[in-house]
Amino acid sequence: MRWRVAGGVGAPLAAAVFFMLPLITSSTGDIRHHGTSRSRGWRAQPSSDVTANNSVSNVTAQLGGTAYLHCLVGHLNERGQVSWIRKRDWHILSSGKFTYTNDERFQVLHGEGSEDWTLQIKFVQKRDNGTYECQVSTRTGIVSHYVRLQIVVPEAFILGSGEHHVDLGSVIHLICIVEKSPTPPQYVFWYHNDRMINYDATRGGITVETEPGARTQSRLTVRGATLKDSGNYTCSASNTEPASIHVFVSEGSNKMAAILRRNTSAIHGITSSVTCLLLLSSVMVHFGLR
């Protein structure tokens, strides 16, 4: 797809708390384990099977997005409960569909008759990174599944160095890359100094083409560059910090003249220094002889 326009408690105590809760689950209940799928979570395994216990899956979410941690539990008694624990501080986040945290970003999603007990975390932050435990209490003990949540921070950069030089009347062509982004940015805006130019009909000759994906690319084209087009250009995506580059527009003859002036000044400076040294040497020799 392309966008085109012109113009981001300790374990024993936790276990004891769960046993104190009025939890009743089927002794034949099972936890379903889906391997390491990022999107689904668990698949069928009997709870009495030790291979189902302590299983691990991985979930990746980007900073500011929403993370879904899945836990599929089959044959759960109507009075049974499934609980989520945050491992870094052993905080009990939920029991059944009830949450036990003041952080409103956390919520348990479970539809009637569904085996999926999903822990939803909105507007994820860097501190949400870590392991979460889904616990199910059975007559023979506790069965656990762990979800490792990784928070990634998208990065944006413009190809090239910090400066871009173009000749008067030529084309300014800039490419912005947004990477480490599981979800493509909703938009990519380009700014010339403080003015957004994606839809600049007044200037004309401006085209922005954006190809969203795991590595989003946004291309800015400014045709017929004038001296007024010099300045700072910024690529601003919806899910990351902006990236900038400075563009210099100048005439080729002016650039050559500037280079010649610099060289002439340097040569003149060297000549002056040599002349001064010769005069000084002559004076010293003259007074030395006397």
TrEMBL record:
Keywords tagged on the record: Membrane, Transmembrane, Transmembrane helix
Stretches the record annotates as Disordered: 31-51
Chain ranges of the Ig-like domain: 46-144, 154-246
Signal peptide positions (record): none
InterPro entries referenced in this protein's UniProt entry, alphabetically: Ig-like_dom, Ig-like_dom_sf, Ig-like_fold, Ig_sub, Ig_sub2, Ig_V-set, Zig-8
Transmembrane annotation, as ranges: 266-289
GO BP of this protein: synapse organization
Superkingdom of the organism of origin: Eukaryota
GO cellular component terms, semicolon-separated: neuron projection membrane
Alphabetized Gene3D superfamilies for the sequence: Immunoglobulins
Xref: PANTHER family: DEFECTIVE PROBOSCIS EXTENSION RESPONSE 12, ISOFORM C, DEFECTIVE PROBOSCIS EXTENSION RESPONSE DPR -RELATED
Stated name of the protein: Neurotrimin
